[in-house]
Design goal:
The complex is a heterodimer.
Chain A lengths: L8 H14 L11 H5 L10 H9 L3 H6 L11 H5 L6 H12 L14 H6 L2 H11 L2
Chain B lengths: L1 E4 L10 H13 L3 E3 L22 H12 L4 E4 L2 H16 L1 H11 L4 E2 L6 E2 L10 E4 H9 L1 H6 L8 E5 L9 H4 L9 H8 L2 E4 L12 H4 L1 H17 L4 E4 L2 H9 L1 H7 L8 E3 H8 L31
Parallel strand pairs in B: 1-2, 1-3, 3-6, 7-8, 7-9, 9-10
Antiparallel strand pairs in B: 4-5
Helix pairs in contact in B: 1-13, 3-4, 10-12
The chains are: A mainly alpha, B alpha/beta.
Chain lengths: ~140, ~300
Amino acid sequence: MRVKLKSGPDQRKFIERIEELSGENVFACYQCGRCSAGCPMASEMDLLPNQIIRMVQMGLDEEVLRSKTLYLCASCFTCESRCPKGIDMARVMEAVRHVLDPKGQDAFGPCELTPELARELPQQVLVSVFRKFAK
Amino acid sequence: MKLHYYPGCTLKDKTTGLDISTREAMKRLDVELVEPDGWTCCGAEYPLTGEKIAGLAAPIRVLRQVRDEGGDIVVTTCSFCYSVLKRSNKALRDDPVKRKRINAFLRDDIQIDPLTKERTTGFADYNGEVQVLHLLEYLRDRVGFPRVRERIKRDLGMLPVAAYYGCRLLRPKEEMGFDEPDSPHLFEEFLEAVGCAAVDYPFKQECCGSYLAVSMPDAATEASYRVLRSAKMNGARAITVTCPLCFYNLDHRQETIKTAYLDFAGLPVLFFTQLLAWALGVDKALLGLGDHKVPADALFVERPAPEVRT
């Protein structure tokens, strides 16, 4: 994949913010790819988990924040349990979602549910999907 | 014996089968389940970023109530509740900053007695005193599988059943400490204790799609299909779950899965407590099989247990 490298205070701030929010050292990653190999949602993703973390390392904020991968992470922690460097990728994903939209737009909000679906769904799925994807 | 039991929101409404069968089964094991007074939703998701500390308030309030009622253990059956309660409890034990901030916030809670209208406030700090256990852990460590075997009244005839762990029971390993994340065996031990034959299959700890069933239904359909197909290909006649969301994805969405993947013919989905309750002699009407979209009635055949069991 071809990417244009950037370097500046914005990039540094982005990386620091992700590390602060997630509590993970993103530079520990050496791109072995085990997170992407085990990810149950990898087939649907435009950027694989290891590509996301590489782009965070390079401070490519716009590319990461545009990715639909952020909304395909089910926080199943398969990547966390397999990472040889002990990085919790689910925390990195959550941190990226957190900085994503300061204006407060829902990626998936209550208005996207039909009344029939809302009646059928178990409560816990509604609580968790809004916790993850709504502001 | 009394034991604190946190059912969680979904068990009181959408998956009452899990709640009823748990209560009936535990009665047969001489355990009386008591709900903590005034419990609320645990929040379903443990906050993964350090700044969303408010997400810890709800689960800690539940745990503090258990402690104030004199309980030292709380059991849950839902994987999401188990994960949130256990991780929040550990966070308060290990992280002095979180402990201080959450306690400073919860100290000023006001509790109003519904009858006397008396107001209580000034709660004592909670420091992680309660132990959070999943019912499977409780059965293994406190009741013991040999004792479960002794109480068995009905023979399940070595029914081949697949144990489905899903994501939240096992991971993250350091925080959950439930079993080995890549080669778990607790659920299989349980199934063998109640008289089933545990089916080994490679997708038992894979994700079913979780909450993506709402926001990205196609992705969740594929993930659930992979789990069900793998269980079926390895000879399972049913798949057992602990989580109401896994149940929704595997059972309620099975029609969608069948439409999308024509090679899949269907597989009944059960809660682990339904098998336990049936084996312990609970009436079929009390298993809560009415919630199932895929009929599971035929799996429960009346057969008395043989006299001698080891």
